[in-house]
Amino acid sequence: MTHKRLYVLLFCFLNVMCLTTTRVEAQDTPETVKHNGEKFLVHKVEAGQTLFGISKKYFCSVDDLLEANPELKERDLKIGQTVLIPRDAMNRKKFRRIDITLDGGGYLTHEVHRKETLYSLSKKYSIDIEEIKKYNPQIEERGLQPGIRLKIPYAQGDDAEPEVMQPPKVDSFEIHIVKKKETLFSISKRYNVSVDSIQWANGGLSRGLKEGTTIRIPVKNVSVMPLPTASDTSVADTLIADTAKTGTKRDTLKVDSLIQQLDRYRTFQIGVLMPFSSLLHDSAQRVYKEQGKFILPSPSVTALNLYRGLIAAADSLTKKGFNADIHLYDTETNLDSLKRSFEDSLPEFDLVFGPLFRSNFEWFADLAKESAIPVISPVSLPSKILIERNNAVKIKPGAGSKLMQLAYHVVSEHIDSNLVIWNSGRFKDRDTYATALKHANICAAQLGSDSLKEMSLYTPSKKNVRSLFEDSTHYTLFVPSNDQAYMSEFVTSLNDLVLKGKGISVTVYGMESWRRFDNLDTEYFQRLNTRLVTDSWVNYNDTTTIRFIQAYRSKYKADPHQDVLTAYDAGVYFFGGLMKYGEFMHYKLPTYIRTGLSSRFNFIRIDSYTGFENQGFYIYEIDDYEKVLVR
Fold first, then answer.
1. Which of 95, 258, 291, 442 registers the highest number of CB atoms within 10 A of its CB?
2. Has residue 454 been placed in a domain?
3. Range 169-188 average pLDDT
């Protein structure tokens, strides 16, 4: 073989090696995505990594990462989560030249390059030179030589606040970056979860999917709230073994057999965590000194009303054998006071009502989750508080839940009566309308009907409204709008149309917010057969309700607020559930359906990783200036 031919073969071999090496490096390069016209690298979080460490790897600041990933300001870093790295904020020259890896032990691994010194490294990573030497004893033996790899512990410098130094937690969600032409259906199939669970975990996704956006995907086989034990350990072991085999499914018969062994005469431990004494004293006294009036602050008034309702419920069940110790905790309005109350240990509660504020509720529900303690929210909080908290229970249905239930009711009752869904076209109503339309069409499809008829007017003047309706026809209008100005003009125009004597009549389904619009005449509601949705309904002609109000007046010299009635119903429901099911009550909620003085309890949960949300609601209309129950 000639030297020339040997050189050619060697040259080809080296080219092949270079190409192979290039491909391998390409596989390790982070994926690049476009979002809102900007380019980002995608970093997948591994165990032991921190936000600070990630910022150092990509040569950008923590603030740049938080700006590109706003959800990190509200939630901890999670294992498996993806973090978008803004390319424009990176020092891309250094990123290409300097290879920094993140291991699982809380270290950066830095490969030393020419001209680097211990001093420059200490400045680069905000760490003392002695600390670098401590974790890298080879420096004392061989000195700082190019090519050696150093362990750099995460520093506590000015740019490394404690919250960005926290290692990631195990999460029951994956972060998915939406790609071009992806749909909710295709994503649900990819991750083997339902479309509804994806929507629920992402606030409804009423605006649909957009390329480059990130969404949370609930993964399967996450841990569920621990099962309680029973006196018959063999039966309990069998139940737990079956649960382990089937994931989140349980043998209902075995659960019921355990329930039969309950001590129904035990004394239950009930926690009530609300803003009580300190707020009452400080705020009320201050207002009294300044204005000469004794006015209670709103959170304390709510807490007081809820407490009175719970006490009334406990008293009413005493004759049936209910015994409980009710423990009051003043949570004030900040998280620090709540943490101080439980910094030593968590009492063995059977049930907890509160806290009222979202951050307090989420913190306590997380604390109580490990002990399988149900935590009840008696006020309106976002449905997101239930995500990853399968011990959390939300009494007040969320706005999305009520809208969904209303859509199903309207379509199922009026699918054959010239049904129209009305779009205001206003930006404020965009998400509400999209949610209502989606669920209305789902219900129509289930009933074997075509998509619903839609009407839209951005300016609902009398002339414009009149042009859309035919004489001598009845219409059922579903109007999912919360825009007060729009609804004032639309209802006025619709009322005028009905009064014209053209034989046009309507039944209008609308939002609970309409009753708070002071410029909408009650007479219009009556003429238009308006029906509204609500999560509470009081029948003041009911004898049980009358007796409760009389007893409350006698004791407190005032009529009960709606919060009192809500808490009373919740107390009767959950205290009765404890008597019937004991510590197994939490698992029986979906089948434990009850109606109280003002609330209906019908709990559901999307999956084992979520808590329970109440779906109980009422629909009423105005007849002869009184609210009359329709459903």
1. 258
2. yes
3. 74
